[in-house]
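I hope you will forgive my troubling you with a question about protein structure. The matter concerns a single protein, recorded as an amino acid sequence and a row of backbone structure tokens. Please examine both parts with care and let me know of anything in them that strikes you as inconsistent. Thank you for your consideration; the sequence and its tokens are set out here:
***
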Amino acid sequence: MGVNIAGIVNFRNLKKEELKGRIIAVDTYIQLHQFMRTMPMLNDNKGNVTTHLSGLFYRTARLLEMGAKPCFVFDGPFLLPNEKPEEPAMPRTSETITDEMAEDAKQLLSLMGLPVVQAMADGEAQAAYICRQGDAWAVASQDYDCLLYNAPRLITNITMSKSRKTSAGKKVIIGMQALELNHLLKELSINQKQLIALAMLVGTDYNKGIYGIGQKKALKLVQKHGNDFGKMFEELGWKDEYGWEDVFNHISKMPVNRNYSLKWKKPDREGLFDFLVMQRQFSRERVENAIQRCE
């Protein structure tokens, strides 16, 4: 689901030239979900879904053509507050993205010569950690959760450049946008801990939020109470399944994989043709063109 703070953040337009030579930690699951929601359903001759592979392959080719160096982060199990990684946890997969589809995506990316990082829990927390370590410039995602995990920079609409018409008939260009966390906190006059508390007021993956409190009201509340979250949540009547401290600590201390490795290789042309053309009935000409863009 992700936290919704779209109404209080300001992005800047991002030019494709700014991606050249930059390492981008991609929140992969949200991309795969996006492909499944917005693209026509595609299948191979055995009935296996290939929509997500098509979207991932051609979008990644565009990203590489821009000169970016993407690494792809996959979610681990969905951990609830107070749950440890070694304990039983709900799988991150769903009816939309199955285990098999996720494994196919990993195989495709490996054949493209791109690093894949498996998170211990939340993929955006892992991507944010990679950025904080200085191993990536930004997280690419379509929601804002990575900011709760202290990602220094968020990119949305990665590789996208298209137009749509508003209800008034005005043409609007939808393109890549960037948001720096430090700038956001300064604009909102809050700190990182207050950003997490604000998100908890409107609702996160781990709590429902407090009824009747939207983004702007939540901002005023955290500005008013500062870091006295106990008093704030007590006055507002916190009634979630988990205590506010449990949710806050869960987000603040999300487990991450510290032993990841980022290595880029040349695309495996024969492997890609076998996987996409022979096994999944992709167009050989389109695959060839995409590989050339990758190279």
Q: What stands out?
A: The mean pLDDT is 92.
